[in-house]
Design a protein that fits this description.
- Helix content is 55%, strand content 5%.
- The chain has 19 helices and four strands.
- A two-stranded antiparallel sheet has the order 1-2.
- Strand 1 (166-169) and strand 2 form a beta hairpin.
- Helix 14 crosses helix 15 (284-295).
């Protein structure tokens, strides 16, 4: 039936029906996204993130992908949101506003108060619940334009001087470095920043420059060159993961299963697909436990976080992990537990080395 053949009343009724169906479809879409992420199917589809999966495989716009993933992850915590979306009580825009304010204790009250409200009304609701301080008044001076130098003036043009290299001390041990870079140097810095994302999440340039020595190691360089500085994961259809950042070295045969660090047993994987391989090899719960232990060192049995840091350093120096643990237990026994929390890493290392050697 053509829409032009409908009466005005029929057209409006049909439009309401379609809107209701759209809300039902949206809730089902979010439920699907929750299950896809839980099963890691986006990684199996050679996508390093749910965002890439939604944009590349589901043809969503970037804005659509962000809003839907955001809402799906919140609905994973609070499944009741899906029913409220179906009923039209909440939209993706209002859910995005509520995201940071929703907790297990505030959920019922806040969602009830926001149901059926517009975006502006929800913003006002949140402002009443958690007022923000007034924006401070400020007057920002606008610098005067520098005078255009006349012919024969020997002084340097201020614009040229500002564009040149600068090394300005900010404190006794900190300095501001400023210079103009060519496209080639900029591309190299961006490339190094991407390659080091696994160890430098925010892309801090100081860390990038400091860690360049790590990229010079022959094996690491050979693996990255062989694999084209891109994640090597491919899905069942032969599609390769496009990730060129957050890259890590992955062992084809895991080290925990006897795999070597020879070139043939190494490959480039993005962090997401590296973790997927670990989960497939050792199990999801095992990997999550190890990540939790890394974030909470005392769960490994060491007496303090600095003891854990010392343990990592000693293992990297070539000592066996069992010997390291024995030495650190001996160090811990010589100090009160409350003193260990403030004992410097250097002191722990020195006392542990005395035991080990």
């Amino acid at each position: 039936m053509k829409l032009a053949d409908l009466s005005d009343a029929q057209l409006l009724d049909s439009l309401k029906t379609v809107c209701g169906q759209g809300r039902v479809v949206l809730a089902r879409l979010l439920a699907h996204l929750i299950e896809v992420e839980e099963r890691r199917l986006h990684l199996e589809a050679a996508c390093p993130s749910m965002f890439q999966f939604c944009v590349r495989r589901l043809s969503m716009s970037e804005d659509e992908a962000c809003r839907r993933i955001h809402a799906a992850r919140l609905a994973c915590r609070f499944p009741d949101l899906l029913a409220r979306i179906e009923r039209g009580e909440l939209t993706l825009s209002t859910i995005a506003l509520l995201h940071d304010a929703l907790t297990e204790s505030s959920y019922e009250e806040l969602v009830e108060a926001a149901a059926g409200k517009s975006k502006a009304q929800v913003q006002a609701l949140l402002a009443r619940r958690s007022p923000s301080p007034d924006v401070p008044a400020a007057i920002t001076p606008i610098p005067m334009q520098p005078a255009i130098p006349t012919l024969g003036t020997a002084s340097v043009c201020p614009a040229d001087a500002a564009a040149g290299p600068q090394l300005v001390p900010l404190s006794e041990t900190r300095h501001k470095v400023q210079f103009t870079a060519s496209d080639e140097l900029r591309n190299k810095l961006e490339r190094a920043r991407d390659l080091l994302r696994h160890a430098n999440a925010d892309g801090d340039l100081t860390s990038v420059l400091r860690q360049q020595g790590e990229l010079s190691r022959a094996t690491r360089r050979a693996v990255f060159e062989r694999d084209g500085e891109r994640c090597t994961f491919t899905d069942a259809e032969g599609n390769r993961c496009p990730a060129t950042t957050w890259l890590e070295l992955d062992h084809v045969v895991a080290r925990g299963r006897g795999g070597s660090s020879e070139l043939a047993n190494l490959r480039v994987r993005c962090r997401a697909h590296n973790r997927l391989h670990a989960e497939q090899t050792f199990g999801k719960q095992h990997v999550e436990r190890k990540i939790h232990e890394r974030r909470h060192p005392r769960r490994r049995g060491y007496a303090s976080e600095n003891c854990e840091l010392a343990a990592s350093g000693l293992v990297n120096m070539g000592f066996r992990r069992a010997d390291v643990r024995r030495a650190l237990d001996a160090v811990s026994a010589h100090h009160r537990s409350e003193a260990l929390d403030t004992l410097p890493v250097q002191t722990i290392l020195r006392e542990a080395l005395a035991v080990l050697t």
